[in-house]
What does this fold into?
Amino acid sequence: MSTPHVVHHVTLSVTDVEVSSAWYLALFGAAEVVRREGPGWSRIRMAWPGGLFIGVTRHESTSAAERFHHARVGLDHLGIGCSSESDVRAWAARLDELGFERGPVEDVPYAWTVTARDPDGIPVEFFCPKA
It folds into this structure.
C-alpha cells in the first residue's frame, strides 16, 4: 500500500448548508454540486474542476446558535494551497471583492498566508510555503 499524499476531501459540520455552500461557491466559483440526505442530516458536496472537494453537513442535533471554535477537539482550520505570494495576495483581493472579512496577509518564517472565516467561523487559510 502506498503512502497517501493528498487529502481527497473535507466535510464540515455547519449550521446551514445553504448559507455555507453559497459562501464557498462565491469564493471558489462554480462547482459540481450534489445534495444528499440521511436520517438526521443533510449535505451539499461541492467539487471544483481543479480537484478540490468540500462538503457541508447540517446535523439535526446541531444548534443553529453554535459556532466553530478552533480550541475544541476536531478541525483547527482548512488550509488551501497556493503556489506563490502573489497567489495569496490574489486570494486576499478576492475575499475583499466579495466583502468577506479576512486577516492581514502574513509573512511568517515558513510561509505567506491570509485567513478568512466561513459563515460558521471556520478559518479558511490560503497558504504558500516558502522555498
The first strand starts at residue 10 and ends at 13. The chain has a mean pLDDT of 94.
